[in-house]
Amino acid sequence: MVQVFSRVRGALLAGACAVVLSGCAGNVAPEVKRLPERVELSGTFYRGEANQSGPQVLASLLSQQGIVITPGLLEKPLHLPGAEDKLQQNMQNLAREYGLVVYPLDSKLPALLTQVAAGYPVMVRFSEGSAFWAEPRYAILSGYDRNKQKVLLRAGMNRRQLMDFGNFQAALEKAGGWAILIQKPSQIPAAVDRSRWLKAADELAQAGEENAAAQARKALAAQ
């Protein structure tokens, strides 16, 4: 009798687990379901905690574009320390000065993972901490696991910080829902918004990089 009860209990537990797992899978957006199951991008990563990790993340992304740079070399052009409240805008301005396109992304998970699946690391700003204390942090969204519903961030001192889809989306929105690509003019984002790319090219031209802006427009026209 005990043995029978044990088998029944085991079957019920297995059934419950299956229901939970299927429910979790059902929460994944259709756009995400169409992406590869798992992606992890490689690339340079600089660890660091100062200034919300902004210089470290920007240096990492610039290095991945072939620019010889370190976080320390970015502090002066980013006006750090002292201009922490303008860091987000200053990083974008500086990326343009290197002839790169700053392409803003929708903050929803499918839009971000679509770029990662295409091979493009995404710069994000998310809130890190607890309900009682939290601060914004910059990171590189460089991978995900669709079945485990986790994203992979390179943030602060952590090269492989895993976060649940839901927690990441909430942390992203709490910090303002900001996410960008930093691209060469020839690197057209996946599912590109043509007007958004052209606006980014115009901003590049306004930064004095007219040739790079022209390349960006030409690359889009060739799509």
Can you describe this structure?
The model is unreliable at 8-25 (pLDDT under 50). This protein has helices at 2-26, 30-33, 54-64, 71-74, 87-97, 109-117, 165-174, 194-206, 210-221; strands spanning 38-40, 101-104, 122-129, 134-145, 150-155, 158-164, 179-183. Helix content is 44%, strand content 20%. The chain has 9 helices and 7 strands. It has one domain: Cathepsin B, Chain A. Strands 1, 2, 3, 4, 5, 6 and 7 form a 7-stranded antiparallel beta sheet that branches. The chain has 223 residues and is α+β, with helices and mostly antiparallel strands. Strand 4 and strand 5 form a beta hairpin.
Features:
Peptidase C39 family protein, 7-stranded antiparallel beta sheet, 223 residues, signal, alpha+beta, Cathepsin B, Chain A, globular
Blueprint of the fold:
Blueprint: H1 2-26, H2 30-33, E1 38-40, H3 54-64, H4 71-74, H5 87-97, E2 101-104, H6 109-117, E3 122-129, E4 134-145, E5 150-155, E6 158-164, H7 165-174, E7 179-183, H8 194-206, H9 210-221
Antiparallel strand pairs: 1-4, 2-7, 3-4, 3-7, 4-5, 5-6
Helix pairs in contact: 3-5, 8-9
Organism: Pseudomonas atacamensis
Signal peptide: 1-25
Keywords: Signal
